[in-house]
Design a protein that fits this description.
With about 675 residues, this protein is mostly helical. It has four domains: about 5-195, no CATH class; about 215-315, no CATH class; about 350-395 and about 535-685, no CATH class; about 400-520, 3-Layer(aba) Sandwich (Collagenase (Catalytic Domain)), CATH 3.40.390. About 60% of the residues lie in helices and about 5% in strands. The chain is built from 31 helices and eight strands. The strands form three sheets. Strands 3-4-5 form a three-stranded antiparallel β-sheet, with no helix packed on it. A three-stranded mixed β-sheet has the order 6-8-7. Strand 7 (about 450-455) and strand 8 (about 465) form a beta hairpin. It is globular, with a radius of gyration of 27 Å. The chain binds zinc ion (ZN). Zinc ion (ZN) binds near residues 1, 484 and 514.
Length: about 675
């Protein structure tokens, strides 16, 4: 589970913020109502008034401020008066303004976040009975009017005028030599990049929610599937969601011999029908029809009936998101496309860099070698669905029941688990004092769900670790997840409390907090007193992560290519979009996967549900593993506590600059590829 990150929060706010009420007629971004002569005159006057100011920064600030200024904010004369009165003319005045802005941002974010956490307690924490009124309070969003308020009060304009925005490229190049204060000023400049009217953000939220509902309610009734020999292979009441449920069932059949292989082939046929949209409408969420996916025939009892393909609903969902996104673009002068928002803004890596990194990875020499290893283990040639090969999971020699017995004894209650946290940190190399300091900022609650970590957004508040502890104590699964969440809490606490400026708090993106959570989770057995994991387990894990990245990077490339195409074809129809996704999926397959799997034209890379309901989110998953392996390589043989305390207080630099600080190089796939090669060599020498 990921943390509540200020950065992502800001992005969410952009999408949910209520804006001005006048309906913008002009769709291309033309929010500014000011004449260019007014803007030039303001720049000239300010240059005279503030001779010490950096002229380039001054121009940039006035222009940014002007970009967002609408008639409701004032006339040209009022704009001029505003800039003259609010420009911080000296470095001292600017520093003072910055300090006040960031103090008040911490008050707003910190308390809004605390309200959010507190109102959702009945939803997230066990105890009282969950009622309708809890759901209503839980659905309130304290941040909903933040941007509206900031623009209406002109605090946004003061910020835009004095702390201008820098592009990702500028941050990565200029940022190398910036002082910490300059970095903090630049982060403040990231705050106001769009001014989206309420009806536009609501329209996007609406279609996103429809896509989410479509995906969450798309089940295949597996008991109704038949082989061509009319055999039922799956249990009667097994309903699997596309695509995760289908994929996980496919994975679980690797240990089921010939029968398992037959089931996998049927699931693969189902997946192809979903992507190609020739799946009969009658077999989605329907318990009455029997379906032979290989011949794509459907039956009532023994009688064949006419199959009516699902209309292009799957692609209509994505199309609707695209249309609503284009409307958001019109109010986003700084990141004016969804690609820019997903990459430059959210991940802070350009789409070009991601494509290059992923392409390097999936064309690496390790792919062929791992594929050979899998063929040897399977005893058959690979088939396209083996992109989900699941046989690298290490089977621990430790018995899970024994482990649960131990964890139940050690952690009989939530309070007992919370009390153990400082000594866990000391085992990982933190000093007694630092361990106590961090754990004083982490509160453990009994979770309704599997658990999560929710960070604080002000130093006076605590991070929450939600975990499950049954009446007879915490079982091993719960302990394993809690160790992951604790890793998040440690990152959240250090990167809030130990970072110099509040606006620098956090990590570059979710990948960087997930990386630390995985570092903790991997050490759960050693925290229980077991010896370090075996070399074989380490090798298996590297192979498992490598193969998972190989799969999802291909899907991410399809996702990216599709959005690039959409922006090149703004008038595309749903059926053109469908044809393009299928073409992109098969093109990517034919270039990078077909040579490994020996079958051309598989559309399987088009199945991922997030491509439909949360487009362009997928690259975050493999990126997280890339970061994780760079961190692991850095901390090998060192004191983990010392390294965490050296690395994480740097706060939210860009990913590349953060990684240069952490390990001395840019974000790179090399450590993961090296770990994979080492694992391959280890297996080849043994077997
Ligand atoms: Zn996590």
């Amino acid at each position: 589970m990921m943390k509540k990150n200020v950065f992502l929060l800001i992005v969410t706010l952009l999408l949910t913020g209520c804006g001005d009420t006048d309906n913008k007629q002009n769709k291309s971004f033309a929010m500014s109502s000011l004449s260019s002569s007014t803007i030039t005159a303001v720049i000239d006057s300010l240059t005279v008034k503030a001779p010490a100011a950096d002229i380039e920064l001054l121009k940039r600030g006035v222009n940014h401020c002007a970009t967002f200024w609408t008639p409701t904010d004032g006339t040209d004369d009022e704009f001029t008066a505003f800039c003259m009165a609010n420009f911080a003319a000296t470095p001292e005045a600017k520093a003072q303004l910055f300090a006040k802005l960031q103090t008040n941002l911490e008050i707003l974010y910190g308390n809004y976040n605390k309200i959010n956490v507190d109102l959702k307690v009945p939803l997230h924490v066990t105890g009282s009975e969950l009622t309708d009124i809890d759901m209503r309070f839980g659905a309130l969003d304290p941040f909903a009017h933040f941007f509206d308020d900031m623009f209406a009060s002109k605090i946004a304009f003061v910020t835009l005028l004095n702390f201008p925005f820098y592009t990702l490229e500028e941050k990565n190049t200029l940022g190398n030599s910036w002082t910490r204060a300059e970095w903090a000023y630049a982060r403040l400049g990231d705050l106001y990049t769009a001014r989206i009217p309420a009806h536009v953000s609501q329209a996007l939220a609406q279609v996103s929610s429809e896509a989410d509902n479509y995906i969450s309610a798309y089940n295949i009734i597996m008991g109704n599937l038949r082989s061509e020999a009319d055999e039922q292979l799956f249990a009667d009441n097994m309903a699997l969601i596309s695509h995760w449920g289908l994929r996980d069932e496919l994975k679980s059949n690797y240990s089921q011999g010939v029968k398992g292989h037959e089931k996998q082939r049927i699931i693969y046929e189902v997946i192809k029908h979903i992507v190609l949209q020739d799946i009969p409408q009658q077999v989605i969420n329907d318990t009455t029809c029997l379906w032979k996916p290989i011949s794509n025939k459907i039956y009532h009892g023994t009688e064949e009936i006419a199959a009516v393909p699902e209309p292009d609903t799957r692609y209509k969902m994505l199309y609707n998101i695209y249309r609503a996104t284009i409307d958001v673009d019109a109010y986003s002068p700084i990141y004016s496309t969804y690609l820019q928002r997903a990459f430059d803004q959210q991940m802070e890596v350009s789409a070009e860099d991601i494509v290059k990194m992923f392409t390097d990875f999936i064309t690496s020499g390790q792919v062929k070698q791992v594929a050979q290893l899998i063929e040897t283990r399977l005893g058959r040639p690979l088939e396209p669905f083996d992109i989900w090969y699941d046989g690298f999971k290490s089977r621990s020699t430790l018995n899970e029941d024994d482990l649960s017995q131990l964890t139940r004894r050690r952690y009989p209650t939530v309070a007992g688990y919370e009390a153990s946290l400082p000594s866990q940190l000391m085992q990982l190399g933190f000093s007694r004092q630092k361990a106590a300091e961090i754990c004083a900022k982490v509160k453990v609650d009994p979770s309704r769900g599997a658990g999560h970590a929710w960070g604080a957004l002000m130093k006076s508040d605590k991070a929450r670790l939600r975990t499950r502890v049954a009446a007879n104590g915490m079982d091993y699964k719960g302990y394993n997840i809690a160790t992951h969440e604790f890793g998040h809490n440690v990152e959240q606490t250090i990167s809030l409390n130990d970072v110099d400026n509040y606006v620098m708090n956090g990590v570059p993106s979710t990948a960087f907090t997930e990386a630390l959570a995985f570092v903790f989770q991997k050490r759960d057995l050693s925290l229980l007193g077991y010896n370090a994991v075996s070399d074989e387990a380490v090798a298996l894990q590297a192979l498992d992560i490598f193969w998972g990245c190989y799969e999802i990077m291909g899907v991410a490339l399809v996702d990216i290519r599709t959005w690039q195409w959409l922006y090149e074809h703004p008038n595309a129809t749903v059926s053109e979009l469908k044809a393009t996704i299928i073409k992109n999926a098969t093109d990517i397959w034919n270039i990078y996967y077909a040579p490994i799997f020996g079958e051309d034209n598989s559309p399987v890379l088009g199945i991922y549900s997030h491509m439909i309901d949360i487009p362009l989110y997928l690259p975050n998953y493999p990126y997280g593993h890339i970061v994780e392996f760079q961190l692991e390589q850095q901390i090998a043989g060192k004191n983990l506590g010392d390294e965490i305390l050296r690395i994480y207080p740097v706060g939210r630099l860009t990913p590349n600059l953060w990684m240069q600080h952490a390990v001395g190089s840019d974000v790179s796939v090399t450590p993961l590829l090296n770990a994979t090669q080492q694992a391959i060599d280890q297996f080849n020498s043994k077997h």
